[in-house]
Design brief:
The structure is a homodimer.
Chain A (H helix, E strand, L loop, with lengths): L3 H8 L3 H9 L18 H15 L4 H9 L1 E2 L3 H37 L11 E2 H7 L3
The first copy, chain A, binds a DNA duplex through helix 2.
DNA sequence: TATAACCCTAGAGTGCAGTCTAAGGTCAAT
DNA sequence: ATTGACCTTAGACTGCACTCTAGGGTTATA
């Protein structure tokens, strides 16, 4: 069990951010010490790791909230809804994957065109690098 | 050459967004019609396509601005700086790529655990799905 | 020729995601 | 016992990326 400052340092976010996430339901208010200090578990650490990762790839806190609330159980009723929601998210994720691969390739083209040795550096911009990608 | 409304419809953004991007230097103010209407070229279309794609995968407008300004020329002096900047960006892009793959896998695990047929739907959350990923 | 559907500007307003401030309580070390 | 580093709350403030409003001009169609 760690205090907010420790978790903040570990996750490289501010204490305020962690309280903000709690206030907005991304991390459930858990244990408190005698003095009222928040105490975080290993699960909380993984949870905020997920939040940060998801944020980095362009999910909003709202979307992350929905992702974290997803839970497959034996409840037949909700199972269909979950499947639907998850598959919709997978589609979005696949689009992002494709987009980021495009960007990576164009950055790579740019990097390769640059100082590659003695051959003359060709004139090249991101947009030109992007256009060259025929796939 | 198309007017702002056409480009907005094509790129699925608002006219205001396009004017906003211009004001912030993401698209250079180009040709104007006799009446002062903005006129956009094919290059502008590709440009805003790039902006939108980059935004979707989590780049800020500021970062996108920097990416768009990158240009490899024969100027030896700036070449080193460009290489450095681009390679730093590639590192970030690679991290995002890894992160989005992680998220995709966990969503897939979640989807697979759900309504897979007659086998009992195992209890599964995003965090558990993430933990299962040993790679 | 007038009506709708477009375009312009400057500037105000909005929602998201924090970030900071004030005023105070707790804990470990000198 | 007091100093400093930590923790608490509520609420104000900030920066980003739009989004809207007001007040006006233009262009195509009935």
């Amino acid at each position: 069990m760690m205090k907010i400052g420790e978790l903040a340092a570990l996750a490289k976010v501010s204490r305020d951010t962690l309280r903000f996430y709690e206030k907005h339901g991304l991390i459930t208010p858990g244990l408190r010490s005698e003095a009222g200090y928040r105490l975080y578990s290993e699960t909380d650490v993984r949870r905020i790791g997920f939040i940060i990762g998801a944020k980095e790839v362009g999910f909003t806190l709202n979307e992350i909230h929905q992702l974290l609330e997803l839970e497959v159980t034996k409840d037949e009723k909700s199972c269909h809804d979950i499947k639907h929601f998850v598959d919709a998210k997978i589609t979005i994720v696949n689009q992002r994957l494709a987009e980021i691969k495009r960007i990576k390739k164009s950055l790579q083209t740019l990097s390769d065109a640059c100082c590659g040795g003695d051959e003359p550096a060709t004139h090249c911009t991101i947009l030109e690098a992007l256009s060259e990608q025929t796939n």
